[in-house]
Amino acid sequence: MSTFRATLNISSANLFPIPTNFTETVTDNVNGNYSSFNTNVLAAAATNVIIYGPSIAPGSGILYFYVKADALNTATVDIEIVQAGVTVSAMRILAGDFAFVPIDASIATTVRADNNSAANPATIQYFYGERG
User: Fold this and answer.
1) Is 34 helix (H, G, I), strand (E, B) or coil?
2) pLDDT by residue (tens digit) across 20-78?
3) With the CA atoms of 6, 31, 42 and 113 taken in that order, what torsion angle do they form, in degrees rounded to the nearest 10?
């Protein structure tokens, strides 16, 4: 198993009515039996399956998922999660954006990336790993 650490830091002196500053750090194990780090170039108007598994995380049932859109993208990318035949548009990633979410993958789970541009490709990097 590998150690996985995710840190979120939000700090603002003027975004909120009251200045805000907080940091959350999660340290956990990722099972190397089901993990991957990839870069994908999505063709214009393409939908690519980036994770597919009949039962992705049979151990803990949790799949850590990170995705980042290239800063030079001119297209937005929707991330869709499909479980039990139901598709949910989980997030929209703009150029330079990133997201990190734990997914309940104890049932058949597919994650798809959908390029919203009819004319331009989009590049994403993504990581997934089963919680140990």
Assistant:
1) strand
2) 888 988 788 776 666 788 999 999 999 999 988 765 555 667 888 999 999 999 999 99
3) -80
Find tokens 């194990």 and name the residue: 29
The label of the residue with tokens 């995710």 reads: 6
Strand partners, 126: 38, 67
Kindly list the distances between the CA atom of residue 48 and the CA atoms of 14, 18, 44, in Å, as whole numbers in the listed order: 39, 42, 11
Question: Which of 36, 103, 42 is closest to 69 using CA atoms?
Answer: 42
d(CA 72, CA 56): 31
Residue 90's CB is within 10 A of a number of other CB atoms, namely 16
Contacts of 17 (CB under 8 A, 6+ apart): none
Q: What is the pLDDT of residues 65-124, one digit of tens each?
A: 999 999 999 999 999 999 888 999 999 999 999 998 888 888 888 999 999 999 999 999
Which domains occur in the chain, in start order?
28-131 (2.60.120.510)
Cβ proximity of 128 and 99 under 8 Å: no
Q: What is the pLDDT of residue 30?
A: 77
